[in-house]
Write a structure and sequence with these properties.
Layout (H helix, E strand, L loop, with lengths): L1 H6 L2 H11 L2 H9 L2 H14 L5 H24 L3 H8 L2 H33 L5 H18 L2 H26 L1 H10 L8 H10 L5 H11 L8 H29 L11 H7 L1
């Protein structure tokens, strides 16, 4: 009887859930990028905790979008891009290709800069540019020298580090804000619509959503019988995404807004590190 009860207990269910998730953790790790962190920090420095709800709203929106994309793939066996190519023709392909080229340069440059600034804040001996190059080469080596499962396992470790560092820092700085005070202060600040939309749109990534279909294909999650697994995976992913976004806003509110410091762009990284 004790063995049966153990297999039905909360610890067993948590272990079983964590054994399922994988592509979702990769989404959480890669979807929290330079743009949304900067947007969240800028919004938090300007408006404080009043905008923390936007991170939760953005994560919920991305869950709905990604669940729909995954449901399409499970039902049809094709990714969204394959569906576009098959049903909408070349004009849509060319439009998306043009967007993807611009997006790759803009977001890639922002990520290189953000990684360089973060590493430079920790180890100032190397310049921002040098650290950016190091991160770029490491990312290229990861993609070229290993498969998806290595990437997924590495993302699980990175998620653990992000959770301890980011959410742990927010809890240490303002435990009440993280445990519920941030949502209790929810509001739409005057003149803050642009910042709110930046947080909602940025949290959880943009083109990153399209990657999930290829990652579940690597896991061989096929057919609608896998829909529950996908929903669990995405639920964990966007819960973590919401926590990360809210933690950044809490830290910005406590370290910047409380001192009357307003930041914009990548300078948020260095100001918060200081």
């Amino acid at each position: 009887m004790s063995g049966v009860s153990d297999q039905q207990g909360p610890l067993f269910r948590l272990t079983a859930t964590m054994a399922i998730v994988g592509p979702g953790l990769a989404i959480a790790a890669t979807g929290v990028g330079a743009g949304d962190l900067v947007a969240a920090a800028a919004a938090g420095s300007r408006y404080g905790l009043a905008v923390a709800w936007a991170a939760l709203a953005g994560a919920a929106l991305k869950f709905i979008l990604n669940e729909g994309l995954a449901r399409w793939q499970l039902a049809t066996g094709t990714t969204l891009l394959e569906g576009w190519s098959r049903h909408l023709g070349r004009p849509v392909q060319y439009l998306f290709l043009a967007y993807l080229i611009v997006w790759s340069f803009v977001v890639g440059g922002a990520l290189i800069s953000a990684c360089g600034m973060a590493a430079h804040s920790l180890v100032p001996a190397c310049s921002v540019g040098t650290w950016g190059i190091v991160h770029s080469l490491a990312a290229a080596a990861l993609v070229l020298a290993s498969g998806y499962r290595t990437f997924e396992n590495l993302m699980k470790w990175f998620i653990a580090v992000m959770f301890v560092a980011l959410v742990g820092s927010a809890l240490w700085a303002a435990p009440y804000d993280v445990s519920g005070g941030a949502l209790a202060s929810a509001a739409v600040p005057r003149g803050g619509i642009g910042y709110l939309l930046g947080v909602i749109g940025g949290v959880g990534g943009s083109v990153t959503l399209l990657s999930y279909g290829y990652w579940i294909r690597e896991r061989r999650w096929e057919g609608l019988e896998r829909l529950r697994t996908v929903r669990t995976d995405l639920g964990v992913a966007y819960l973590l995404t919401a926590l990360f976004g809210m933690a950044v806003i809490v830290l910005a509110a406590r370290s910047l807004h409380a001192r009357g410091v307003v930041v914009a762009g990548n300078e948020a990284v260095t100001h918060m590190a200081a």
